[in-house]
Amino acid sequence: MNLFNKVKESIKKYNLLAKGDKVIVSVSGGPDSLTLLHILWRLQSDFNLGLHVFHLDHMFRGEESKADAEYVAEFSEELGIPVTIKEYDVPGYIKKRGLSKQAAARKIRYELCTELANKVQADKIAIGQHADDQAETVLMNFLRGSGLEGLGGIEPIRDEMFIRPLLEVWRSDIEDYCQEYNFRPRIDSSNLKPIYRRNKIRLELLPYLADEFNGSIKENLNRMANILRVENSFLNEYTIEKYKKIVVSYDKDELLLDLGSLSNLELAIRRRVIRQAIGDFCGGKRDYYFHHVKQIEELITDGETGKRLQLPEGLRIERSYNALRFFWQGTNSLKSHRFVQVYSIPGQYKVEELGIKVDLEIIPKDDNWQEKLRNSNELYLDYELIGNEFKIRNRRDGDRFQPLGMKGNKKIKDFLIDEKVPRRMRDQIPILSTVSDEIFAVGKLRINDKFKITDYTERILTLDINKAEEGGSN
């Protein structure tokens, strides 16, 4: 099977592209990214793709970097694809933040690429990592002592946005493709020197292991990564189920976990729940390692009430009588204005925290339901998709839902801005969700498109929300 068909097979296997996707393609000018761009260009008509090239000049190599940018612009223009070229003083950023060259470059590249994707409303960001990169990553993570997540290597798709269509093809196949189409890829000379850890693994360690121990070492590392990713995915889903049950409250300033429930978890799952909490609260796990998890674990099992940990980036963790508290340096008191309550359906409820009354009824779906909806101030939802319990809370940072009539998800913060809800009133808008925390309505402003009435709906949940002083349903 040739490279083009292998890539098509990977796209289908991992569902990397959908019809009509708008895709940002990260292009450095090297063989991998040129091949990726050219293949996606050839697939444009198959998927009705809208392509947009992104290139970052990291300002590491002076005139060479500028020549890379000019080449990417010319290559993209020949294919008729719009291109965005950005410059960023990564060397200056490294001095300020103390990161490695590769880590800093990756961080800035991803941030600017995501910024462009948001600006042009792209659905995906395509990256040119391939099977050799996967082998190098898995081996490098093994040398670091990583767990399953690290040994699972690079994911074909991450966060439903970052896609890697070349992940199951080899560097040699990509070089052959470039020769076949007479590309003149740019070569970063620093990649040919064993001066970075990844380069040493690529240029020295992997060839040594292949010569002395196993000629199929790269294939075996890729196969192992595929096996471990599947198992890690299952464990992640199980962990999230447990994690949701022990979260007492959560916002950008504070996360509270039920200490008793956390203590009763099996050690392997407790460690994963700790990492999940760090990831949620800190927006990532990059600066937190196993020894930090161990410290938190010891605080849970052996710590005294009131004991506090000081972790990197200003993260603080405190043990109380019945909760484990994550907060930021400078946050002194527990938050009292965040809340969540569970209610049964049907019913009438007064939510004192928000000064509202909520009325929920279940009615059969008949032929006149659309006319009833037009003549009502109530929201109509598919009851079976919600069930007999639901939650009411106020909003949290990062909340998303799919507004009725829209194709994709939207941050509730952005939705409320678009709806011209004054800033001072946004935290008073009730957020209604299923017990599994999927938001189905943002006050009376809009329901989630996933919970709308369809031909398959059997019973309708009517929802009415009024100020408490105005009484119940109309």
Which labels suit this protein?
474 residues; alpha+beta; Rossmann fold; Uridine Diphospho-n-acetylenolpyruvylglucosamine Reductase, domain 3; Phenylalanyl-tRNA Synthetase, Chain B, domain 3; 3 domains; six-stranded mixed sheet; five-stranded antiparallel sheet; 16 helices; disordered C terminus
Overview of this protein structure:
It is a single chain. This protein has helices spanning 3-13, 31-42, 44-47, 63-78, 90-97, 101-120, 131-144, 148-151, 171-180, 197-212, 217-246, 259-263, 267-282, 290-302, 369-374, 412-418, and strands at 22-26, 50-57, 83-87, 124-126, 157-158, 162-163, 247-250, 254-258, 308-310, 315-319, 323-328, 340-344, 347-351, 356-364, 379-382, 389-393, 400-401, 410-411, 431-433, 439-442, 446-447, 459-467. With 474 residues, it is of the alpha+beta class. It has three domains: 3-224, 3-Layer(aba) Sandwich (Rossmann fold), CATH 3.40.50; 256-328, Uridine Diphospho-n-acetylenolpyruvylglucosamine Reductase, domain 3; 340-470, 3-Layer(bba) Sandwich (Phenylalanyl-tRNA Synthetase, Chain B, domain 3). Strands 3-2-1-4-6-5 form a six-stranded mixed sheet, with helices on both faces. A hairpin with a 3-residue loop joins strand 10 and strand 11. Helix 11 packs across helix 13 (267-282). The longest helix is centred in the middle third of the chain and has 30 residues, at 217-246. Mean pLDDT is 89; it is low at 332-336 and 470-474. It comes from Selenihalanaerobacter shriftii.
